[in-house]
Amino acid sequence: MASSDIISIIMPSFNSEAVIAESINSVLIQTYSDFELIITDDNSTDNTIAIIRQYQGSDRRIKLFTLGENLGAGNARNNSIKHAKGRFIAFLDADDIWLPTKLEKQIKFMLDNRYTLTYSAYQKFDRDGDLGIINPPLEVSYNQLLYSNVIGCLTAIYDTKYIGKQYMPLIRKRQDMGLWLTILKMVPKAYCLNEVLAKYRVDSGMTQDKLLVLKYQWQFYREVVGLNVFKAFKVFIIYAIKGYLKSFK
Fold first, then answer.
1. What pLDDT digit, counting tens, does each position of 82-94 carry?
2. d(Cα 89, Cα 246) in Å, to the nearest integer?
3. Where along the chain do its domains lie?
4. What pLDDT, in 10s, does the model give residues 194-205?
5. What is the CATH number of domain 7-206?
């Protein structure tokens, strides 16, 4: 791998004091060390920023930016992307973790095959231990992704050498799906490294309003993707069914 293959890791944080240390540590123990960790804090009111600054004191690869008001994860991620200097843009939220060889294996996968956007399998976990493994399809196109967001944000990496910096739409939900669709308008497919390289934290203490989630998805198809009513209805129904089936995994 060339010395220019720097990875910019995009991490938004908001009131993450209980979990962010574990996430940062999972980055610092990566076997691929040529990275910068760019954290944008979304106006936390707990000790998140103090914890990040402690890590900054011992590792210059960590960069911290703060937002003056709470604008959502999409805005926080975009601020980090704006300041990124790396060729590759990778994503990790402040409550998720990577396995130690994540970057090394995935960047090799991209360079060997000249892939622009890649993702991997991942494992869900909670405070009691590991849960199910999510094995996405080996490849996905724009039209396929419309029906189900199979790209876990904590696993995604894209290559700015081929498409430049791409940003998330400024919406409160589904920002990551919006970005993947933007990229998939530029390249034919995204590709999966079929190995568990990350762990997604399931917040069992948080009640999710399924109807609200579906409302956001409908708005996403109509207002962000720009689908007409008939196309949006078809895609939405299939998305809802796939989401229901996925909840059992």
1. 999 999 999 999 9
2. 27
3. 7-206, 207-249
4. 999 999 998 744
5. 3.90.550.10
